[in-house]
Amino acid sequence: MDVAKRPLSANLFATLLVLAALATGYVGLSAYGYLVPAATLLLLALLIWLGRGRRFFIAIVVTNLLSELISDLVLLLGDGLGAYKLDISGVAMLINLLVGGPLLLALSIPLLATLWLSPYLRRWMDARGFAHV
Amino acid sequence: MKTFRLDFSLLPLLLIAPLGPADAAWLTGKVLAPDGTPAYGAMVTVTDAAKARRETVYTAEDGSYVINPAFTGTLTIRARLSGFEDAAQTCTPNPDQIARVNLNLKRFPSIEAASDALSAAAFNARLPWPDVKRDRTPFISECNYCHQVGNDTTRVPRSHSEWMATLDKMEGMLALLSARQKAIVADVLTRGFDGRPVQAKEDYGVSPELARAKIKEWYLGDGMTFVHDSFVARDQKLYGTDEGHDILWVLDRSTNVIEKYPLPDIDLPRGGLFSGLQLPIGVFTGKHGPHSMAQTSDGRIWITNSLSSTLMSFDPRTKAFKTYPIGLEALYPHTIRVDRNDIVWFTILATNQVGRFDPKTERVTVIDLPSGGPISLITKLSLPTIMRIGSWFPDQALHVYLSTHRIFGYSVLPFPYGIDINPIDGSVWYAKLNADKIGRIDPNTLAITEWDTPAQGPRRPRFDANGVLWIPAFVDGVLMRFDQSKQTFAKFKIPSVSPGEYETPYALNISPRTGEIWMSANNSDRIIRFSPVRRTFMNYPSPTRVTVLRDFSFTNDGVVCSSSSNLPAYAIEGGLASFICVDPEGGARDREALAARAN
After folding, report:
1. Distance between CA atoms of B399 and B380, rounded to whole angstroms?
2. Are B577 and B318 in contact (CB under 8 A)?
3. Min CA distance, B338 vs chain A (Å)?
């Protein structure tokens, strides 16, 4: 495969990430806290478009997924934690916003699955020498 | 011109007076309009020397009044009638003396003075809304929530940026305007409150019933006191929850003594679970935020503590409090009622729930109410976490930067508000203020059914003895009637006191004696009485400008009481919160007592 040619999946995800960034940014115009995940989404769109920083990209998406998971689990099952329950979910929520917010969560499974299963996208993001950003 | 003379001819009759407070003076006379005609329906208000208590009667058709205030000393007597300048004077009648005081109302010396005497309704009715239906609705819902907008404190001309700063402050106290709504409100207030006088003729109406009534007011605390609800307990004392200062005020109407009981401390910061809000310093010094009250058969009074999310009992005999946590994800417990099995039910406003508490087992059950769609559900689920994040940064109101209300407005939080128990079947009913719904909870199965209301802003409903639910619609200024057996609503538009004005009915209660409905009308300084039989409204104009009343409660002797609760209290005429009671026959009793003495 010609690594210089951007695979269709990169085009698709970059577009989706930009759309997610725009939607989150629109919300952020009213509730400024959402400008942070909007910026993160734009950064991720840029990375996947340029094909750089795969590990960093994956770290962001996985952190988004895990923070949401922790938040949900703690809220659902964490009654024994007492007052710490909301502290943990609060930290998880802030981390989740920092790493892309709720719309990235919606994209995270297809993104990770494609990066894992599709050699094209993986090679696209690996081949440009910026695996470690 | 005012005349004042003491009438000693009736003095010997005092020895046989069967009624009236011991040692209290009698005041009687006439109130005349500037043209010399009798002023019908004028308020004659007597204030004691310490300015701690006031009593008011209304003049009869011939302009006459009689009042036997329960206090002596140097008294201030004031006559007030809409459309005229007040007439006032002081006198120091001896105890048991009958003083004749005639008061002549005057025309206002200027249009500014006439404008200053108008209610807030006259001012906010003239706000230039681009689209009344679309833009005024969130304004009424969010900006008239805790206080009037249009009184002399809140209609001060401000620039657009100053109004935006004011709205920021309100948002920091949980006003839920979207960014767009906020900009529109700021623009309208900038253009509408320009400092120019307003001309309006506010007519509160007159009736023979008005001249039979008497209003008593007892001032409380200071200009920062925020007594949310009042409640007449079985001991006939009036209890008031000071939401800002964690105090339970108790008035003994028979002795006129007011006591205060501070709530026990709790390991929370100022503002409780809402410490991240920008609660005004001075007004909110507490942590619990006591809100609403109800009483179980064992005599204990149950209090919802909105800020600490706790339920609290107060034993009037031992004066002991006991605290019961509701849960960190049950935010802002609100109105509370007790059912016939002594189960305590309360709405949980911010997280769209209803609480059930069994005092025997001391077990709390939190019931999730139907959400208003995915956005509403997400907002509700994330709110406790967002408020927790906010509490890490006290008084910064950072929650607004994460809240979906900024985009979608106040309707993202349904706000279950008032609650009551159907006396026929024991079912529990609530009103969702922001979702325009009422709901029924089966007390046994906890099954929930909801209905859309035909008017916006159902706030604090109550059942009458026949199981008919009466609902004040705060936003639309309507009284609604819901007949469960027929599943039908009826609407009664509350008449305004001047064309174009609107009303904001907050709460109501139904007289157990007469079946009539007493209702707050917080935009135009009056109390409304509605006859379900004649389907007519009548007004009791309040003697105090900036009257914002909350729950109504009845005494065994037919008096209806509430708390003057504008936030802040210093914006109320006189600068203080108060207990306020309307005795529908109090004025007539004073007249009859004086006539009995004369005969």
Report:
1. 13
2. no
3. 28
Extract the tokens encoding B136. 């005024």
Residues A31-60: pLDDT tens digits?
999 999 999 999 999 999 999 999 999 999
**Can you give the pLDDT at residue B22?**
53
Mode of pairing for the β-strands spanning B26-32 and B98-104? parallel
Cα angle A14, A15, A17; round to 5: 65
pLDDT at B8: 40
State ipTM. Answer: 0.91
**Interface contact A94, partner B, CB < 8 A:** yes
Q: To the nearest whole number, what is the mean pLDDT of chain B?
A: 94
Residues paired with B262 in a beta bridge: B247
Helical (H) or strand (E) element with A84: helix A84-98
Element (H, E) at B28: strand B26-32
Min Cα distance B381 → chain A (Å) is: 9
Rounded mean pLDDT, B139-144:
94
DSSP string, B87-156: EEEEE-PPTT-EEEEEEE-B--SSHHHHHHTS-HHHHHTT---SSIIIIIHHIIIIISSSS-SSSTTT--
| Other Cβ atoms within 10 Å of B147 Cβ, number | 21
Closest in A27, A33, A83 to B328, CB measured = A83
Q: Hey, what are B470's tokens?
A: 């009466």
Q: In whole angstroms, give the CA distance from residue B399 to residue B108.
A: 48
Q: How far apart are CA B466 and CA B228, in angstroms?
A: 29
Q: Copy the structure tokens of residue B356.
A: 């059930």
**Span between the terminal Cα atoms of chain B, in Å:** 30
Indicate the SS3 state at residue B459. Answer: coil
* Nearest-CB residue to B407 (from A31, A75, A90): A31
Radius of gyration over every alpha carbon of chain A, rounded to an integer in angstroms: 16
User: Is residue B90 less than 8 Å (CB to CB) from chain A?
Assistant: no
**Closest to A42 (Cα-Cα) out of A94, A92, A103:** A103
User: In whole angstroms, what is the distance from residue B526 CA to residue B204 CA?
Assistant: 8
Distance CA B184, CA B168 (A): 13
pLDDT, one tens digit per residue, over A92-130 is 999 999 999 999 999 999 999 999 998 899 889 887 655
Write out the H or E segment, with its range, that includes residue A14: helix A8-30
Q: How many CA atoms lie within 13 A of B527 on its CB side?
A: 27
A34 interfaces chain B, CB cutoff of 8 Å: yes
What's the CA gap between B385 and B115, in Å, rounded? 47
Look up residue A122 and give its two tokens: 């993986």
Quote the tokens at residue B588. Answer: 């007539």
Closest residue by Cα to residue B438 from B485, B401, B471: B471
Are B403 and A32 an interchain contact pair (Cβ–Cβ within 8 Å)?
Answer: no
**Cis, bond preceding B197 (omega within 30 deg of 0):** no
Question: Which chain B residue lies closest to A94 (C-alpha atoms)?
Answer: B389
A121 touches chain B (CB under 8 A): no
Judging contacts by C-beta atoms under 8 Å, the chain A residues touching residue B381 are 75
Residue type, B422: N
